[in-house]
Amino acid sequence: MEDRKEKNGAQPAAGSTTNRRKGILIIVIIALALAALIIWAVIPMREFGSDPVRLRAYMDEKGPAGVILFIGMIILQVLSTVIPAGPFEIAAGTVFGVGKGVLICVIGMAIASSLVFLLSRKLGPRFVRLFFSQEKIDSLSFMHNSSRRNLIVMLLFLIPGAPKDLLTFVVGMTDMPYGLFLIAASVCRIPSILLTVLSGNALASDRKWLFWLLFALVAAVYAIGIVAFGKYRRKLKASSRAQSEDQTGPQ
Fold first, then answer.
1. Sign (positive/negative) of CA torsion 63, 65, 68, 72?
2. Which of 55, 115, 122, 225 could potentially form a cystine with 160 if both were Cys, beta carbons 3.0 to 4.6 Å apart?
3. Could you tell me the pTM of the whole model?
């Protein structure tokens, strides 16, 4: 409706202009924070990337600040929408071990996903389009119509390879309860996070054979997840289209 009014020469509503400005400001803040984090932490960490022992010592020196720093990196990874989560999860297993590494990743994902969800709900489609094309947003359009949406969101967060960043932005524009979404975005992610963190821990303990075995397993699971998600999405879109046709009836 807003787009139609703009094409007819009408002025956009003041609220939508304000929301767009807020969205742009948020992106600028995220970009600056990401740049600062890369300069302060990520670039120095690259020096130890091939030496897990030195990387763990580097983070141990920072104490509790190292944990906060790592959670901050995970949050910015999610908000960037372009940086993959895998390297951070591997690093978490390398630096913190399996249990603590999984917990840190889950906390970071939960905080970041909550921010995205709440911002999308508050600012709406214009904000989401600052991060993703309309085509990608439309690929999850069935989320607005499916009567089984809450269950579908849970399943998609369980599937490795599903576009979870895009999913978080889109679900924020639906009426899904925040508490239920938080469970999906944190608890349902644990299996895939655990597998990746285990591979990082194997690397830290110099069990390179186990690292490559787990890495291959992660890659295979992600490939299967991408294929499964594609088929599942097509099925849901077809079901949603059929429901719409049943509701409108024959023309």
1. negative
2. 225
3. 0.73
